[in-house]
Write a structure and sequence with these properties.
alpha+beta, Alpha-D-Glucose-1,6-Bisphosphate, Chain A, domain 4
Length: 171
């Protein structure tokens, strides 16, 4: 299932794409505030059931050098309720500067998802189209709750994109 949202950012396509191509900005997309209030990132990346229950501890860059298809990162999350932690792998699945970048997020348990960002110049601005794709889960419980997860992702994607727009336009 695909979930879509688009925004127009008052920045050039080169500026917008270079932000996405910066390794450190992956932390922005995956960030979860410890207070439980979301000020950045995409709500459904860290924890597909309750994103307010975890926070990002760090990012390990597995693949060195410039970004390309196959670049791999590991996102480390800690639970706010106990001492547990988890890692989510992130791989770049498409990379066409300055038009397209796509990521696959997977923790080998929950529902894998993909985020694809397409960039189109519009006068002095850039239209960013995001497609969030939800795959089938590997664990039965997540298969059963997939409709709920998709519903939550639909609810979260638009505000996530609006936060991204505001952040890009203030830089």
């Amino acid at each position: 299932m695909n979930i879509r949202s688009s925004i127009t950012v008052n920045r050039s396509i080169e500026t917008v794409f270079s932000w996405f191509a910066d390794r450190e900005h992956l932390a922005y997309m995956a960030q979860q505030e410890e207070s439980g209030k979301r000020s950045s990132g995409f709500s459904f990346i860290p924890n597909f059931i309750n994103p307010k229950s975890v926070h990002l501890q760090g990012i390990r860059h597995i693949t060195e050098g410039p970004l390309h298809v196959g670049t791999l990162f590991l996102l480390a999350y800690a639970s706010k309720w106990d001492t547990s932690s988890s890692e989510i792998s992130v791989v770049i699945t498409e990379y066409v500067p300055p038009r397209l970048i796509a990521f696959k997020f997977n923790d080998n348990v929950r529902i894998p998802n993909h985020l694809l960002f397409a960039f189109v110049p519009v006068a002095d601005s850039t239209q960013i189209s995001c497609v969030a794709k939800v795959e089938d889960a590997k664990v039965v419980i997540f298969k059963l709750i997939k409709p709920l997860i998709v519903f939550q992702m639909k609810k979260w994607l638009r505000p996530d994109m609006q936060r991204l727009k505001a952040m890009l336009e203030t830089q």
